[in-house]
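target protein:
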Amino acid sequence: MSQCLRTTLNPPKTLLRNPTKSSPVSSPLIHLPKSMKHSRISMSQQNQQELSLDSLINSTRKEEVLGAIKGSLSYCLTETSLNKTVPALKSKVRGKVRDIYDAGDYLVLVTTDRQSAFDKILASIPFKGQVLNETSLWWFDRTRHIAQNAIKCSVFPVEFVVRGYVTGSTDTSLWTVYKNGVRNYCGNALPDGLVKSQKLPSNILTPTTKADDHDVPITPEEIVKSGLMTEADYCEVSSKALSLFEYGQRVALEHGLILVDTKYEFGKSSDGSVLLIDEVHTPDSSRYWIAHSYEERFQKGLEPENVDKEFLRLWFKDHCNPYEDKVLPDAPADLVCELAWRYIFLYETITKSKFELPLTEEPIHDRISRNVELALSSLR
């Protein structure tokens, strides 16, 4: 077995996007052949931007954004299928946060405002879909030197989770399994004595695969033996995943943030090229902490100041058993608004550009339908 499978803490389509700025849920269009439609889809301290939690909580920009967020709460995307309102769409496959529609020669991917965690849909977060699409587009443009990207490919049925710290609250999080005594996780040998929020000696890969709609940790050897990927593909993808994460950490730190962990998905094009797909370093797929306060809070045993959805996960864990309860409580409106703001704050902090808030009160479903029809018309 090659060296890339011996993981330790010290490891030696053409894509046509229509990220309509006026739409809280952007709708990229992907040209995908029919045969593929059912494939699974340390910078130095002085160079850091000093970012504080106060800039997240009390900024004038937050007040401006919150007005739009609160005003949009009543316009959350309904479950009405787009193929009932867009004649060109034939059928739908519903994912946790993305819906895929069949448009004949094209597939339409809609990134919704649905928020998932604990293998469930927890809430609908205003502008979340737009934030995820625009954040991913920004990162896709800046990581082409590491991995080309597209969605016109056959998707590897493995998610590549890269971690730089011991943290998390879900059943598959590194801190949860570590505190339960696990010392070899997904092929990574973990030393004794680690504490929550501690930085790992080096970044690690903890791959997962799907079973009954939940993530299952898997080792590199199991991936190859089960035929999910060839050894050569796994080695190439794991190298790209680690390089992407290291690059993301450098860029985040330049903007006052710590990229704590993330997940990547990859596929293979018809010419055999390995491609990065799905989303990159978004607040949905990644965990971010504020760098400036991390060390002091870690030394005091406090949770790092975060700019992601972890506080929403923790709220649900405090108010129910999110894995076993059949009916979960509704997330408070203030919590939903705060998460929507954090997603926008992260986008603006990383990209150094202003998030364009929709100025219309047109219902989101109608807006998506209109944008999809216009995009499809432009391709005919």
In short: Residues 231-254 form the longest helix (24 residues). Confidence is low (pLDDT under 50) at residues 7-48. The chain is about 30% helix and 20% strand.
